Amino acid sequence: MSAKIAVLSDVHGNVVALEAVRKAIKKEKPDAILVAGDHVLNGPEPGATIDALRAMETDGAVIVQGNTDVAVADFDYAAAFPWYAEGVPDALRYAAEWAHDALDDERLDWLRRLPAERRLRLEDTLILATHASPGSQTAGFDQDLDASVTLERLSRTDARIICCGHTHLPEVRDFGWKQIVNDGSAGYVFDGDPTASWALVTLEGETVTAEIRRTEFDALAVANAISARGLPGDVYRAATVRTGKLVR
């Protein structure tokens, strides 16, 4: 008996990319869909993005909260961005405030109520959905992370498959006893390919396989929408969406 899981994260207010990914996922007919946080910050359509995610949730998708969702919902920048010891940059704060003001109370409450992690079991395999790493919304599985730190973060959960995002760099890492499935970003990717990335995990008994999928969307239209907003830093956000590379 087999099962399929679709994983996406880091939509960042890019509902155009999200809708393209939803169509691609629907064709795969997965048994479960996991959405690993960072839903609204930076992109031009936070409200429409939440509406689409809530529709997915109604249909059974498992959705968790990311660090930038904390920033948008409650302006808790110390929790959302602990690496900014001297305070978050103004451009980041303005973007969080803009997204907050674009959401009504109901959408903000939904964002606040999302869990930091969710677990599900399929085919006797435990799967963890988390934004960055087990037990953390901010400490991710960076590609240049020291191996000992990676192993320590892996050991924080009994889950065999850890589905996450946060780095915006899609990759699958198989350690034998555990597997990291980082889907990258379905809206704000950093690897130089201006498409939306997501992951498809297949369980066949005790065998786990995972692959990164790429879905095209109108990146230029989204970049133009960001530029038209006119917030500090939007020229860099637009360039990031347009090129698929982090520009700052």
Tell me what you see in this structure.
- With 248 residues, this protein is of the alpha/beta class.
- The chain has one domain: Purple Acid Phosphatase, chain A, domain 2 (4-Layer Sandwich).
- It is 36% helix and 23% strand.
- The chain has helices at residues 15-28, 46-58, 67-74, 77-80, 90-102, 105-113, 147-154, 219-229, 234-243; strands at residues 2-8, 32-36, 62-64, 117-122, 125-130, 161-164, 171-174, 179-182, 196-204, 207-215.
- The chain has a five-stranded mixed sheet.
- Helix 3 crosses helix 5 (90-102), helix 3 (67-74) runs antiparallel to helix 6 and helix 8 packs antiparallel against helix 9.
- The termini are far apart.
- The mean pLDDT is 97.
How is the topology of this model organized?
Layout: E1 2-8, H1 15-28, E2 32-36, H2 46-58, E3 62-64, H3 67-74, H4 77-80, H5 90-102, H6 105-113, E4 117-122, E5 125-130, H7 147-154, E6 161-164, E7 171-174, E8 179-182, E9 196-204, E10 207-215, H8 219-229, H9 234-243
Helix pairs in contact: 3-5, 3-6, 8-9
Summary keywords:
five-stranded mixed sheet, 10 strands, Purple Acid Phosphatase, chain A, domain 2, alpha/beta, 248 residues, globular
Please summarize what this structure is.
The protein has 248 residues and is α/β, with parallel strands linked by helices. The chain has nine helices and ten strands. The termini are far apart.
Largest sheet: 5 strands, mixed
Contiguous runs where pLDDT drops below 50 for at least 5 residues: none
Measured between the Cα atoms of the first and last residue, the distance is 47 Å
**Taking Cα atoms only, what radius of gyration do you get, to the nearest Å?**
17 Å
Number of contiguous helices? 9
Give the total of domains: 1
CATH topology-level fold name: Purple Acid Phosphatase, chain A, domain 2
